[in-house]
Amino acid sequence: MNVTWLLAWRNLWRHSRRTWLTVGAMVFSNVLLVFLISLQLGSYQMMIDNSLAAFSGHIQVQHRDYLDDRKIYQVVPGAAGLAGRVREQLGVDAVAARAEAFALASSAERSFGILLTGVQPQREPLVSTFPGLLRQGRYLQEGAAEEIVVGAVLAENLKVGPGDEVTFLGSGRDGSFAAAIATVVGVVESGIEEIDRGIAQVPLAWFQQVFSMGDAGHSVVIRLPSLDRVEGAVARLEAMLADQPELVVLDWDALQPGLRQAIASDMASAWFMYGVLLLLVAFSVLNTQLMSVLERTREFGVMLALGMRPGRLARLVGMETLLLAGLGLVLGVLLGALLTWYLSHTGFTYPGMEEMAAKFNLPGRMYPEISLLSLLVGPLLVFLGAMLAALYPALRLLRLQPVAAMRAA
To answer: What's the pLDDT at 370?
Structure first.
């Protein structure tokens, strides 16, 4: 067996230029796959973090019926106090209480329906990027001040800006009539028209007064340092709230189910492109090995005439392909890992990305995610494709006749 491996290695370098060209194609494909898959996984991480940071957070504590049927009376009792206990339980600062209500907002000229959100002004910037998107004025201040921050499209529709007053009409938690006037102190622009058209934020304490909420809210929002901590945090919160069966702990997948579907769709389209690349590499290996077999037809015929079995010749070609693919695998993974490791520290960007991201209060660089999956799945598929491509040249040898082979040369 050792002699066969040595023979396979020697045969591989009979035409070193052709071998290196094939290995180079495999290495290039492996490096590209490692980089693209790592960047793709990293972009999904950034996509999830940015989507959750906009408003929903990684986890929310809500009334068990509130997600499906947003009624104002489906509340979280003592929302601000619960948020404080959650901060202590999880050891994170990014926890905030919220309350929501649909209301009619009116200025001197126009009226529009909006989703009015009561927030904790000092805590909201920790769980949401919304406060960082100010286009005019300032954000809310702590306390029960009668002030409001509105989306840019809503401000244009109402014809208001910082210093103007907006009147609200709605229904309180107890069924009473809720009405109040607030002064616009800031205008935010998220870049998403649906959000900028209908959202407005006021201090939670003032919201609770106007809508007869008492100390209740509708959600406690938690933003964690990474997605890896979500599962453990959910388990700890469920144990903490075991004596309050009316409350549920919802992770980001339950809060934004469309996000995972979007990632799955993007991954499917990306793997179609990867599949085309794998197919091209497989044909390259097939061409190399088929040429190697055809130009050694006379040699194989002589070996068969001397008594060597066709199966051993086929195994020899398989060994050559294994060495060729193994060399491409090792070099590709090594170079791909070095490139990905470097970019995971420095980040990856392209012209215009930082300016575009700054408009949405998002990071201007993407960071590839290094893992065994990103490092090995692509190169292993290239390796498997190369081995499958060697089947045809090897099967030709099983049907090779000694006399015909020697004459064919």
So the answer is: 85
- Residue 195: pLDDT band (50, 70, 90) is confident
Residue 98 pLDDT > 90 = yes
Cα separation of 29 and 393, whole Å? 23
Check whether residue 19 and residue 93 sit in a common domain.
Answer: no
- Position 300 scores a pLDDT of 75
Is residue 67 one of the residues assigned to a domain?
yes
Rg (CA), the chain: 32
* CA 137 – CA 341 distance, rounded (Å): 42
Q: How far apart are CA 27 and CA 21, in angstroms?
A: 10
Among 150, 149, 137, 146, CA closest to 182: 146
- Quickly count: other Cβ atoms within 10 Å of residue 198's Cβ: 19
Amino acid at position 209, single letter:
Q
Dump strand ranges (E) for 189-298: 199-203, 219-222, 247-251
How many domains does the chain fold into?
2
CA separation for the pair 226, 314 (Å, rounded)? 51
Sign of torsion over alpha carbons 268, 273, 279, 281: negative
Q: Average pLDDT in the 137-155 region? A: 88
Q: Is the dihedral of CA 310, 314, 316, 317 positive or negative?
A: positive
Fill in the amino acid letter for 154: L
Q: Which domain holds residue 191?
A: 59-223
Do 93 and 45 share a structural domain?
A: no
| Burial environment of residue 313 by CB neighbours within 10 A (0 to 12, 13 to 18, 19 or more) | buried
The token duo for 299 is: 């040699």
pLDDT exceeds 90 at position 352: no
Question: Residue 151: which H helix or E strand, with range?
Answer: strand 147-151
* Cα 184 → chain centroid: 36
Is this model's pTM higher than 0.85 or not? no
Neighbours of 1 (CB within 10 A): 7
Burial environment of residue 293 by CB neighbours within 10 A (0 to 12, 13 to 18, 19 or more): buried
Tokens 């790592």 -> residue: 38
